[in-house]
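Hi U.,

Before I forget, here's the chain from the pilot set. I'm dumping it here mostly so it's searchable later in email.
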Amino acid sequence: MTQPQRQPLIVILGRYLARFLLRVLTRLDAQGLENFPETGPAILTPNHVVWSDVVFIFAYVKSPVVTFAAEKWETRPILGWLFRTFGNAIFVHRGEIDRKAILAAIRALKNGAVLGVAPEGTRSYDGILRKGHDGAAWLAARTDATIVPIAIWGHENMERDWLRLHRPVVHMRVGEPYKLPPEARQARAHDMDIYTDMIMRKIAELLPPERRGEYG
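Structure:
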């Protein structure tokens, strides 16, 4: 078994600060936190609503998480540092198949990392689950990584609620870890949709029916 990775002190302190702020600024209803993996290879597959998704996950994960970030942020003085320090970011060239980023993600998983991948590929803003893309399924199939479904909702209008001096109720569910069936390892790229559908339905099961979109 891969040993848990040591986390820099600044990351540990940042996580405690994030938990404190979330408890103060929201009424957080979190369940299944024990399902966060301590080691990899594992892939966290959350729904993607707004930018603050990552804050809720970062606050409660047990292991450093490798994330994807658009390459435009890499050279930004503050955001680039945040992505590298707290997100162990793999910077991706959007709009093309970035083979360098894909190989970096595979290498990280095979070295026992926990990788965060939002299968929707972009933010929904309204919290309704969108159609998934094949990236998470492809990486899981090629590395035999454990998959952890995550659903977060109720935070899409946090800023509006704060302006009204309300603490929004935010729900986070971390589902039971699972793996794709063995035959996924031999599946070709154009056959990944069946496994992507499996991943998306695992996320949908954690969401209220009205937020499951086409996976309801």
